[in-house]
Amino acid sequence: MKPSFEGSLPPLERRSVVRVLREQAEKHPGRPAVAGPGAELGYGALLDEAAALAGRLRARGVRPGDRVLLMLDDHVDAVLAWLGLTCAGAVEVPVNTAFRGEFLDHVVRDSGAVAAIGETHYLDRLAAADGGRLRGDLIEHVPAESGRGRFDLPEGEPVIEDAEPWDIAAVFYTSGTTGPSKGVLVPHAQAYGYASPVYIGAVEPDDTSYVAMPLFHVGGQLWGVYNALIAGARAYIAPRFSASGFWADIARSGSTFAVLTGAMARFLEAQPPSGLERSSGLRKVCLAPVPADVDAFCARFGVSYCAGYGSTEAATPLAAPHGVSGAGGLGWVRPGFEALVVDGHDRPVPDGRIGELVVRPDEPWTMFQGYLGRPDATAEAWRNSYFHTGDAVRRTPDGEFFLVDRIRDSIRRRGENISSLEVESAANTHPRVTEAAAVGVPSEHSEDEVLLLVVPHPEGAPDPAELFRYLADRLPYFAVPRFIAFTAELPRSASNKIMKGPLRAAGVPADGWDAERNGLRATRDGIVRT
Fold first, then answer.
1. Per-residue DSSP letter, 348
2. In CATH terms, is domain 412-529 a member of 3.40.350.10?
3. How far apart are CA 248 and CA 239, in angstroms?
4. 341-366 per-position pLDDT tens digit
5. Going by CATH, does the domain composed of 17-163 fall within 3.40.50.300?
6. What pLDDT, in 10s, does the model give residues 1-16?
7. Which positions ≥6 away from 138 have C-beta within 8 Å?
8. Number of H helices and number of E strands within the chain?
């Protein structure tokens, strides 16, 4: 049943982070805005502290339009750093805290950032990145065991730089599929449209949004926090997602709404039944995409669900209010967008047929403004007046879209997008690896696991456990391959490119090495034995 999409967005000129902060602080200065373990700020205090931090950033030399990296853990101060940069007129560049090696070098180099704000325990990594380019421009955040930490900045006069809807608010790095990750230029109007709860009724003023997705992700920052700020609600920042502690944390934080990836939902379902499951206070969840067993999920946990399709480039062109979408559903085209399902020549295909999802906005500044420094990649993505998402979908006769697969070679593992090229680049530096190919293979946890196929050096193959440890030192933990297998050669096309389709279809070879079966797992804190 196609939803009616009641409500509307405010005029374009009101869609900026600064205007949202001002309006909520004027209307509800004492209402709780953001909270976390041992910390909470009301809307008035949040605006005041953001303005004060903006002044201190100005005193440090940060100017309007400057790009500044954020490599922070998930806490109230991380939200304040984002908002402080915004009030200073600067552009935030959130960095995945697991990045190291070439992953981090690339973001530092490609972003052209003038400074970086990082936790004490990330400063060595940031200082070494890209040959030490930012070594003298690091701003330390000294964390506290509970509550608020502090930023190592000089004093300055509070400042609030008004932002226009077309001003760039952030550069989010999205995983590259055929090359290094690309910086997505996100203007204020796009960020507002991505986050606004108006069309699906996700968060209401009396809600608390439980944010367990990392704040360096567009989903955590915009759909988790900004969604709540636009609604005048409260956002609770969880340090990280824990399936075993989820319900206790929901109850302790007073949360009523949460955004869950497919993997998060699966991990919750795998937990033994708990008395808190239905008494924690959680009433609503956003699931993307809607899992096949959504009815059982909602019945067990006593929640209703909404859904949508969001991407860093396209905002949220598809949405479904609570309880409307079916299993695997992404929703319907929401007001302000057009969407088609097309074939390889950009011709629309009939309903029910699989094709690529392409979208475009009805208003200016409501989708990304290109890839930073990559005009050719921007033009390719926007060909024939539509943005090409790279996702294979089908549409039903009533207009609902369903996700089928990803067209390109990006691997998605537990909510993280992984560039196969960057995994291969790290593997290829091993002295006993001649060539490598990384592909996604089905996981029992939902989404993908990473399989690395290796053509060994003529002098002999590396020990798979040693290669696993080698990669764990050079890759974000989520990109470290779980499976490693050896092969004499990799299939190639007529143009000499590795053909990954056959590799994905074949799956893990019978003689493939499995880290988990060998008692090893790469985690944020390093390799652990299981």
1. B
2. no
3. 14
4. 999 999 999 999 988 999 999 999 99
5. no
6. 677 777 789 999 999 9
7. 115, 116, 118, 123, 126, 127
8. 15, 28
